[in-house]
Design goal:
Order of helices and strands: EEEEEEEH
Radius of gyration: 13 Å
Number of helices: 1
Number of domains: 1
Pfam families: DUF538 (PF04398)
Shape: globular
Strand content: 35-45%
Mean pLDDT: 87
Distance between the termini: 35 Å
Helix content: 10-25%
Number of strands: 7
Strand order of the largest sheet: 1-2-5-6-7
Length: about 70
């Protein structure tokens, strides 16, 4: 695993279940560090982007609302 600012590459041991199939995730990154969009990449170079707020834990969500 290689960690850089706003990016994790050469990731192993992480998978996502998509329509009954587990797919390995090889990279997680922000396209732009000021963005709230987190992108996940699989070895076939396919990507999916989600709001980073979807991955905050409950404590972080509660703190940001106050």
């Amino acid at each position: 695993m290689l960690v850089e600012k706003g990016r994790i590459t050469k990731l192993t041991g992480v998978a996502s279940k998509e329509v009954f199939v587990w797919i390995s995730v090889c990279e997680i990154y922000f396209d732009d560090l000021s963005s709230d969009k987190l992108t996940f990449k699989v070895p076939a170079s396919l990507t999916a982007t989600f709001p980073a707020s979807a991955f905050k834990d409950e404590v972080e969500k509660d703190d940001s609302e106050h």
